[in-house]
TrEMBL record:
<keyword id="KW-0238">DNA-binding</keyword>
<dbReference type="Pfam" id="PF09339">
    <property type="entry name" value="HTH_IclR"/>
</dbReference>
<feature type="compositionally biased region" description="Pro residues">
    <location>
        <begin position="269"/>
        <end position="278"/>
    </location>
</feature>
<dbReference type="InterPro" id="IPR005471">
    <property type="entry name" value="Tscrpt_reg_IclR_N"/>
</dbReference>
<comment type="function">
    <text>May be an activator protein for the gylABX operon.</text>
</comment>
<keyword id="KW-0805">Transcription regulation</keyword>
<keyword id="KW-0804">Transcription</keyword>
<dbReference type="InterPro" id="IPR011991">
    <property type="entry name" value="ArsR-like_HTH"/>
</dbReference>
<feature type="domain" description="IclR-ED">
    <location>
        <begin position="82"/>
        <end position="265"/>
    </location>
</feature>
<dbReference type="InterPro" id="IPR036388">
    <property type="entry name" value="WH-like_DNA-bd_sf"/>
</dbReference>
<dbReference type="GO" id="GO:0003700">
    <property type="term" value="F:DNA-binding transcription factor activity"/>
</dbReference>
<dbReference type="GO" id="GO:0003677">
    <property type="term" value="F:DNA binding"/>
</dbReference>
<dbReference type="InterPro" id="IPR029016">
    <property type="entry name" value="GAF-like_dom_sf"/>
</dbReference>
<dbReference type="InterPro" id="IPR050707">
    <property type="entry name" value="HTH_MetabolicPath_Reg"/>
</dbReference>
<feature type="region of interest" description="Disordered">
    <location>
        <begin position="268"/>
        <end position="290"/>
    </location>
</feature>
<dbReference type="InterPro" id="IPR014757">
    <property type="entry name" value="Tscrpt_reg_IclR_C"/>
</dbReference>
<dbReference type="InterPro" id="IPR036390">
    <property type="entry name" value="WH_DNA-bd_sf"/>
</dbReference>
Length: 290
């Protein structure tokens, strides 16, 4: 705040300039808590005194950017995965990034190219960790940078292993647009490509995000077998084309498999698709318990 002297010599504190619309949006978020994790548009409108139309638009904006999720049946909102990413970054780095760093160093040592860990953040992915190539000409990845789930082998393994309803929702979202010269923007073509990624256990791309940049990526799964991110090799096509594809694929798959195990996944890698809902996993585990 800025301090200024009043007419009688007293000190007055001038309030800082703020954005009222952003303040209203943040006040809505403050209603989400451990005791009240889900809210409907009507309930938030009643609690805040804001018009339903305003509340609906604010919530839809947060949902679009991954900060809120909406139950397709109840239409109620809850906090989304983007807050998890932001919170962990605020705590001086993601635990998963620290776990992944030695694996990325191994991938870069084996390939000579930049290796990247992308994590899902709502309808996008975010670069959580990277190890740069030692070559002077290289793909420069930036930690904290967001990307589209349907563009490039660093991101498509995440989209490929999402539940089917989430894939469908993504393809109807504003994020499904062209990001580079060879980004796949045809729905059926992309669905076929995602099926191929699941069949082979890795993604491959060329100039989908940037011209002449090639990548190989594989999915990372959490303890429940849900996709949480992807590890990839990214570099200039002219250099990667001189390396055996099997060599690149083996490096990213080994790293993705090991990171999944470090996160608690004990099943086959890649994890089965479509993923089993957590409730059914608990029921299945209970049924196996004597």
């Amino acid at each position: 705040m800025v301090a200024a002297a009043g007419p009688g010599g007293e000190v007055r504190v001038a309030p800082r300039a703020t954005v009222q619309s952003l303040g209203r949006a943040l006040r809505l978020l403050q209603h989400f808590s451990a005791s009240t994790p889900e809210w409907s548009v009507g309930e938030l409108a009643a609690a805040t005194g804001l018009p339903k139309g305003t509340v609906s638009k604010i919530l839809a904006t947060f949902q679009e950017h991954g900060y809120l999720l909406q139950d397709p049946v109840t239409r109620r909102y809850r906090l989304g995965p983007a807050f998890l990413v932001a919170g962990r970054i605020a705590e001086s780095g993601l635990d998963i990034a620290r776990l992944a760093l030695p694996l990325l160093q191994r991938v870069t040592a084996a390939s000579g190219e930049t290796s990247v860990l992308m994590l899902r953040a709502g309808w996008r992915s975010v670069c959580a960790a990277k190890v740069d190539s030692p070559h002077p000409v290289r793909m420069a990845a930036e930690v904290g940078r967001f990307a589209s789930l349907h563009s490039g082998a660093s991101n498509k393994p995440i989209l490929a292993y999402l539940p089917e309803e989430d894939i469908d929702a993504y393809l109807r979202s504003p994020y499904f647009v062209r990001r580079g010269p060879r980004t796949i923007t045809d729905r059926q073509h992309l669905l076929a490509n995602l099926a191929e990624i699941r069949r082979r256990g890795y993604a491959e791309s060329d100039s989908e995000v940037e011209v002449d940049i090639q990548a190989f990526g594989a999915a990372v799964f959490d303890a429940l077998g849900y996709v949480t991110g992807a590890i990839s090799i990214v570099g200039p096509r002219q250099r990667l084309a001189q390396r055996p594809v099997d060599e690149m694929v083996s490096a990213v798959q080994a790293a993705a498999r090991e990171l999944s195990q470090l996160l608690g996944w004990r099943g086959p890698w890649p994890a089965p698709w479509p993923p089993t809902p957590p409730g059914r996993q608990i029921q299945a585990a209970s049924a196996r318990t004597p």
